[in-house]
Amino acid sequence: MQEVEDALEDAIQSEAAFVTEAARHLMHAGGKRFRPLLVLLAAETGDPAGDGVVTSACVVELTHLASLYHDDVMDEAALRRGAESANARWDNLVAILTGDFLFSKSSELTARLGADAVRIQAETFTRLVEGQILETLGPGEDEEPLAHYLRVVAGKTGSLIATSARYGARFSGAPLEVEEALTAYGERVGTAFQLSDDILDIASESDESGKTPGTDLREGVPTLPVLIARQSSDPADARLLELLAADLTDDALHAEALDLLRKHPAMDEARAYVIERANEARELLKVLPEGPVRDALDAFAAIIATRTS
């Protein structure tokens, strides 16, 4: 990971010092480096020192970072990872151009990995952007909101995490069947990762997770527990459903909705769904021989499903 950190620092250098500063802003804001870590874990299925492993780890992290700059502009976010967002610190133009710069640096590195990597990255980027578009448009008139949301998560989050696992296997020289299994593993782990965030938004206390509880709820962003709760036809849920359809910027209404949702069976259903996705990912690891690599990837999926921060 230190090699990856050093390579990321090199990659964001620009002739314009201001651009480097803006690009460094979120990179140093305390992200989990989830995607490059998965590249490195997947690379343990072959030769972890293989050509392209560290470069591909940088590719996925730079792509992710770039998307955050653009997301914050779209969401008009003031904070990212507890720090001031780029658009709040500077303005939307700086944030957009910094995101573009990071996407371009990611593309430069991808080109070093060969034509097939360029194809994979292009397909991944298409899915990521389409996921964002689907989220912006919302579900169609005849589309079930929960199914639509899961499509958004698969595109926005699952696609890049699947590619992270794929790159690790590919550039370490792992067999094709391992690469294919780990790509599917990454898709499921990525989905579980995003959906566990949904649960944390409702369930966590701020001193546990470092996040403000119910942020998505307050902003009217549909998440897995909310979408499951909205499917209820139980008369006892009338007040909760009324609140979920209301403006929850009012502190008292927000606190009431958060309390009712935390007690609702939708939370356990959401947890069960996330655990099921993680268990599907773990089943895919049977293609690997027993040993520390398989154990690490298995533990990785299990932690994602049950994390508290």
From TrEMBL:
<keyword id="KW-0808">Transferase</keyword>
<comment type="similarity">
    <text>Belongs to the FPP/GGPP synthase family.</text>
</comment>
<protein>
    <submittedName>
        <fullName>Polyprenyl synthetase family protein</fullName>
    </submittedName>
</protein>
<keyword id="KW-0460">Magnesium</keyword>
<dbReference type="InterPro" id="IPR000092">
    <property type="entry name" value="Polyprenyl_synt"/>
</dbReference>
<dbReference type="Pfam" id="PF00348">
    <property type="entry name" value="polyprenyl_synt"/>
</dbReference>
<keyword id="KW-0479">Metal-binding</keyword>
<dbReference type="InterPro" id="IPR008949">
    <property type="entry name" value="Isoprenoid_synthase_dom_sf"/>
</dbReference>
<dbReference type="InterPro" id="IPR033749">
    <property type="entry name" value="Polyprenyl_synt_CS"/>
</dbReference>
